User: What shape does this take?
Amino acid sequence: MDFHQQLLKPGNVLVADGAMGTMLFKAGLKSGECPELLNLEKPEIPADVARQYFKAGSDIIFTNTFGASPAKLADFGLADKAAKINSEAVRLVRKVVGEKAFIAGSCGPSGKMLQPYGEFEPNELFSSFKIQAEALINAGADIICIETMSDIQEALLALKATRSISASFPVMVTLTYDKTARGFYTYMGIDIDSTIKKLENEGVDVIGSNCGNGFENMVEIAKQFKKLTSIPLLIQANAGQPRLTVDELVYDETPDYFAENARKLIDLGVSIIGGCCGTTPAHISAIRQVIDTYQLTGKT
Amino acid sequence: MELLLQISASLQQGDDSKVHELTSLALQQGHAPEKILSDGLIAGMDIIGKQFRHHEIFLPDVLMAAKAMNAGLDLLKPLLQESGQIGLGKIVIGTVSGDLHDLGKNLVTIMLKGAGFEVIDLGKDVKPSTFVDTAISENATVIGMSALLTTTMPVMKSVVEILHERGLANSIKTIIGGAPLSDEYAREIGADAYAYDAANAVVKIKELMGV
Assistant: This one.
């Protein structure tokens, strides 16, 4: 069954995967190193992360390509390796999951500011995203996920770049919001209402939010999205706000807490549930169990 | 509206050509450069800082205001330098080595310049010795360090240690900032201050310098 059919099957809720970055650091990635270069130099590490999430019950596995747009790789002097890094990322996940899970090609922010705030021209970022999306799609990704965006213009450029390759290829877009006294906004000042208005007309298949928030805020964000749009919703919460101990970051939200909140998201009608920073295969497994119960009994 | 207030208002709207034009007009009319800086540009930037902290405005507005600030500052700087008034103090700033996240640091730099400080921005991936050596050679009294990655935070501790080793901890103060950091962490590594956001960094650095 293809992704569109799965997504639109009544009562179906899909499980995404959990964190990539925090898992890679646990596996030995050093700070200052390019996480995506592992796809070429130590492919067994991202492959093992994919295997753990697949075993935990993810229906959708994300590629280790969050920072693999040429614009972002340029920080490491690796822009010319972008196509290879992206296509290897898809291949290594495909080896693990075969046809039993969807592969979402992750496209994170370029880290560059568009004019007039910054120095980048729209067509530079468009070309950068197009190179990345093209490599991911050609290597066999099932979905493109434009994620963790704060600037809606950048999200739109990435979406249009993907659409310029294929008008019907499944695309998901997620933004990251901060809770303020005036509601949820990205740091570029985009609220949920304007997120939806800007993306709705561009033919996005799935919309939603990841990162930046623990589950309590994410349930609130999901409620607001559901009030304003019928586009299928993707929610990936952090395992809480990171807390610093002497030398490491700790995320406090447990798999049980995730299960409890996953029920709330199902009741709200969220289509895809996963995790972001600090989540582990145990969190994903907890979400899987809740969804399995729901699909067997129709109850959360 | 009074001219200096107009400068402040145009800065808040992020209108750089208007700020340039009005600053030039104010000079022609005989306003003192330091008065234009404090009651026009800095006054406007203070309001921007407050609104940003209260989430009434967002990063794009701050960046546009900063551009407008620079448009006015470009005219005033030579005059202020001539009269020996080059602002509130000198700060060396950078994202610590191993860390390439410089958005927060850039924002702090803008806010500090806007508030009238002279800022030497060392960019990202800055080594501990570079922070200290630059502060000495530039005669700066504050070192500002930013980190997003927890793994790069120990670099901040090294900077504090080098300052102590060289007996400079009293003359050069340290301030840290970045998502994973806290007051507690600053105390733990012996840094003089922690700022939770860019506007707060300005407040804290003013305290450190006693201005």
Observations:
- Chain B touches chain A through 30 residues (CB under 8 Å).
- Chain B has a mean pLDDT of 89.
- Chain B has nine helices and five strands.
- The two ends of chain B are 29 Å apart (CA to CA).
